[in-house]
From TrEMBL, chain A:
This is Spore germination protein YndE. Keywords: Germination, Membrane, Transmembrane, Transmembrane helix, Transport. Signal peptide: none annotated. The keyword Transport applies. One of its GO terms (cellular component) is membrane. It is a multi-pass membrane protein. GO terms for biological process: spore germination. InterPro entries: Spore_GerAB. It is found in: Membrane.
TrEMBL record, chain B:
Residues 249-415 form the Spore germination GerAC-like C-terminal domain. Residues 58-79 are annotated as: Disordered. This is Spore germination protein B3. GO terms for biological process: spore germination. It is a lipid-anchor. It comes from Ruminiclostridium hungatei (Clostridium hungatei). Keywords: Germination, Lipoprotein, Membrane, Palmitate, Signal. Residues 24-202 form the Spore germination protein N-terminal domain. NCBIfam families: spore_ger_x_C (TIGR02887). The lineage of its organism: Bacteria, Bacillati, Bacillota, Clostridia, Eubacteriales. Belongs to the GerABKC lipoprotein family. It is found in: Membrane. Residues 1-25 form the signal peptide. One of its GO terms (cellular component) is membrane.
Length: 374, 428
């Protein structure tokens, strides 16, 4: 039993925890996020996302306070401890459902993009099947395996992105960030706060807290990954505005892909989007694997099921079905992705914060190291 | 154990089928790769689309063989490539319609050039350019030009006259822009961005066919006057040769429509102002020996500094060009290598470039009212928000702008000579 439990959770270090959460957040730059931000905020998008980053730091601080109040407990147990077993279970299952929705929407966004750019005639179901099969194999190896994969691929992914941004630099014109306040400071701040949802993947640390060697590492990993992601988002949005202006910059399906296609030095140094493809596919696979694994893991925690492996197949099936729900690309972008990146924070951040408030209100606390209740 | 291994193998084999991308697989030989896409106004339908693609024959395309080599060339076959034209409601459908006569699917994945006819460009290009921006096979780094006359005729004369590879020839032709600056290298990506831009207007290279009749060879004209101005439009360059197609000058756009052009000489000063001039030899008349030429090889020593501000509500643009030059030739053999003479020559070069740059800006501002220089980028900073900037509508205010140009020229080197010695008896 213990072996099985270890098998599914395992332990991960600070670096792996940072990579795990960062890669999940950073993957958005490969998709429609950049164009959507430029469309809403215009030329101020590059610092608008820093407002999202700051908001996320504040939100994560609240989540951290909750975790600190209940040491040695992951957030699913905290829910049950504060609002009771039934309501806690419901809330936990909502998170599991959200993770499935997140994974399915991410797969679908990936599939729609790969169909638009690379494989236009391949049926989406074939692509989704292949994608989920890989995620299922990764999830089979549990959190430790996923964390190792994230740690291995995070640096190459970031190097790939940086390489694209540097190689595309001849296309940049710094005057394109004018007017400096974009579509207005108010709009930038409001959107910035709302788009903090784009960083809410940091909440996964609250579910795997028992695997990250305690609160200190959780705190360090949370803050670091938010800052790394904020810097990555900001740089990418800035580079895209500098290259495409705020007008064409809001049109691109994948701004980063377009940037990689714009690289041209001479007859021999061009067509470098393969760098993008590598980074894009790896980052997407890891992201969906994490979300998929967490969906199963949260579910098993809700029902106290030992081991996650028997659930991989049924959850793969559910994932496949949910990924096929959106009828078309606009639906994926305007419904699923917009919810995840703009409004999911209301649930992901506010649910734990509400639990924290309730815990404070009803003076509920977890056990201390010596086993005494405070 | 054996069962597990077998299951894993079956699973992996299943994945092999799914993950090889076989649905979208295409053999290289299954497609024809259009290298040039020409767009003309249609007669029976909206648009006339011309493509030029390699023939896949021996010797890098087969067309490398001359007619005298005994092989017949079809009417629409030019060296190493075939040219097909079709009329269709849209460019993308035209590509499909080629499938009714061409045995392979037409792909734009390796397209190098887009040629738009002048007539179409003057009517507006948005309807034809936008679909290409959406189409995955059309790459943003493709070069775009406007052709005098029809794109179809231009492409029919688009021959690789050096080497066998048309693709290489097309790419190197546009690189000539960096060597001479007589025409700009504009990518589809640049042009499309400028169509949507609120900071600037678009421009493309200007191309055309030269019937090779501008070079009088049958009579001796006596002492020819000195004309240092290489102000040519495509089709007008006095030359003979093999290739009829030529690039000379810039097609100027306003609101997506071509409104005029700059000739090859004006294009050089335009390129200096926008910071795209890389190098070029410019001849000036020698004041100390009228009728003779001093050739200076110019290059920018730093990027142009453009400052913009409002003075009593009027936009003022101030441009500073920093250029370096080497003396390429002194016909008069006046000792311009002397440091005082170098200084004088620098001052004259500054005046010359300044005057020309002002003329070009004046022409674009007054005749075309199109900010192809991108001065708007500098003024946008005076507006806090995009709404205010768009409300101001810089592109409609461009004409009112006061523009000052200052040029600094530093002559650095004098070629391989330290001093021009007098040639004995030359003055006689």
């Amino acid at each position: 039993m213990t072996e099985k439990m270890n098998d599914r959770q395992g332990y991960i270090g600070t670096y792996e925890a940072v990579c795990l959460t960062s890669i999940m957040m950073v993957t958005k730059i490969f998709y429609t996020s950049i164009a959507v931000i430029v469309k809403i905020e215009g030329t101020s998008g590059w610092y608008g996302t820093l407002i999202s980053c700051l908001t996320s730091l504040v939100m994560f601080s609240f989540i951290f306070l909750l975790l600190k109040r209940f040491p040695h407990m992951d957030i699913t147990k905290i829910f049950e401890a504060v609002i009771g077993r039934f309501a806690g279970k419901i809330l936990t299952l909502l998170f599991s459902a959200y993770m499935i929705f997140y994974a399915a929407s991410s797969i679908r966004e990936f599939i729609e993009m790969i169909k638009a750019y690379n494989l236009p005639y391949t049926p989406p179901s074939i692509l989704i099947f292949g994608f989920i099969a890989v995620c299922a194999i990764v999830a089979y190896h549990g959190l430790e395996g996923i964390a190792r994969v994230s740690a291995i691929f995070f640096v190459p992914v970031i190097i790939g992105v940086v390489l694209i941004l540097i190689l595309a630099s001849p296309n940049y014109d710094f005057d394109y960030i004018k007017p400096y306040f974009g579509y207005g400071l108010k709009k930038t701040i409001v959107t910035g706060v709302l788009r903090s949802s784009a960083y809410d993947e940091v909440v996964i640390l609250a579910f795997i807290i028992n695997s990250v060697h305690g609160l200190k590492i959780c705190k360090r990993a949370g803050y670091s990954s938010i800052l790394i992601s904020g810097l990555t988002f900001s740089t990418n949005i800035l580079c895209n505005i500098l290259a495409f202006q705020y007008t064409a910059g809001s049109e691109n399906l994948s701004s980063l892909f377009e940037l990689s296609r714009a690289i041209y030095f001479n007859r021999f140094v061009q067509r470098l989007e393969s760098i993008f493809l590598f980074a894009w596919v790896v980052a997407s696979l890891v992201t969906v694997s994490i979300a998929f694994y967490l969906a199963i893991d949260i579910y098993t925690k809700a029902f106290r099921i030992p081991g996650h492996r028997p659930l991989i197949f049924p959850f793969s099936f559910i994932l496949f079905m949910v990924a096929l729900i959106p009828e078309n690309m606009p639906e994926v972008v305007q419904v699923n992705i917009q919810f995840i990146r703009q409004y999911s924070g209301f649930f992901i951040y506010l649910a734990p914060i509400a639990i924290l408030l309730l815990a404070v209100l009803f003076r509920k606390r977890g056990e201390l190291h010596n086993g005494k209740k405070s | 154990m054996a069962k597990k291994v077998s299951l894993l193998l079956v699973f992996c084999l299943g994945l092999l089928i799914n993950l090889t991308g076989c649905y979208d697989a295409a053999e290289v030989d299954d497609e024809v790769y259009a290298l040039v896409l020409g767009i003309d106004k249609g007669i029976n339908n909206k648009v006339r689309v011309t493509i030029q693609y390699p023939t896949y024959k021996s010797s890098g395309g087969g067309g490398g063989e001359s007619k005298s080599g005994g092989r017949m060339e079809a009417k629409n076959e030019t060296q190493g490539s075939i040219i097909d034209t079709i009329e269709a409601p849209s460019i993308l459908e035209a590509l499909d319609m080629y499938g009714m006569s061409t045995s392979r699917r037409v792909s734009l994945m390796h397209m190098k050039n887009i040629i738009i006819s002048e007539e179409l460009a003057k009517e507006g290009v948005q309807a034809y350019v936008s679909p290409l921006a959406r189409y995955r096979e059309a790459r943003g780094v493709v070069n775009i030009s406007v052709a005098r006359g029809t794109a179809q005729k231009f492409i029919q004369e688009n021959k690789s006259n050096i080497g066998e590879s048309l693709a290489k020839d097309l790419e190197l032709m546009t690189v000539q822009s960096d060597n001479t600056s007589f025409f700009p290298r504009v990518t589809f990506y640049d042009f499309y961005n400028s169509l949507l831009s609120t900071y600037e207007q678009g421009y493309t290279a200007y191309a055309g066919l030269n019937e090779l009749g501008n070079l009088p060879e049958d009579k001796y004209a006596g002492k020819a006057p000195l004309m240092v101005d290489n102000a040519f439009k495509p089709g007008e360059i006095p030359r003979s040769g093999v290739a009829k197609r030529e690039y000379a000058g810039t097609a100027v756009f306003r609101d997506g429509k071509m409104v005029g052009s700059l000739n090859s000489e004006e294009t050089r000063y335009f390129m200096m102002i926008v910071g795209k001039f890389t190098k070029g030899i410019i001849d000036m008349e020698d004041r100390e020996s009228p009728g003779k030429v001093i050739s200076l090889n110019f290059r920018p020593s730093r990027k142009p500094v453009v400052r913009a501000y409002f003075k009593k509500g009027r936009p003022i643009i101030s441009i500073k060009l920093e250029m370096e030059a080497d003396i390429g030739a002194v016909q008069s053999r006046v000792n311009y290598e002397d440091k005082d003479q170098v200084k004088k020559l620098s001052t004259r070069a500054e005046d010359y470039l300044e005057r020309r740059a002002v003329q070009v800006i004046g022409k674009v501002q007054q005749q075309y009212n199109s900010d192809i220089f991108g001065f708007g980028q500098k003024l946008a900073g005076y507006f806090p928000t995009i709404q205010e900037w768009e409300k101001y509508d810089w592109l409609s205010h461009f004409k009112e702008a006061g523009i000052n140009v200052k040029v600094n020229v530093s002559i650095r080197r004098t070629g391989l000579m330290l001093k021009s010695a007098r040639i004995t008896g030359y003055e006689k």
